[in-house]
Amino acid sequence: MSMNSSPTTPFVNYGLERWEAARAAFLQGKAATPPVSKPVDVEVIIDKIFGQSSSEEFEKVSLPMMINILNDLWLAEGEA
What's the rounded Cα separation, in Å, for the pair 25 and 9? Predict the structure, then answer.
């Protein structure tokens, strides 16, 4: 505890306030809709991952899509 006699300001949890506002908007159906991923060519993604050239830029791929691609590739290698 501080020996200062200066008044302290009460703690305000701004993160909780923001979360509660977002939850209230979600429950009322006013929440923003998540962006929709555009379709990607799985073969192109795999070629870019395992290709020799590292200078190529990747298309934006959502995390769930990338996990599915890598999981399918891992399972296919296990069957070989």
Answer: 29
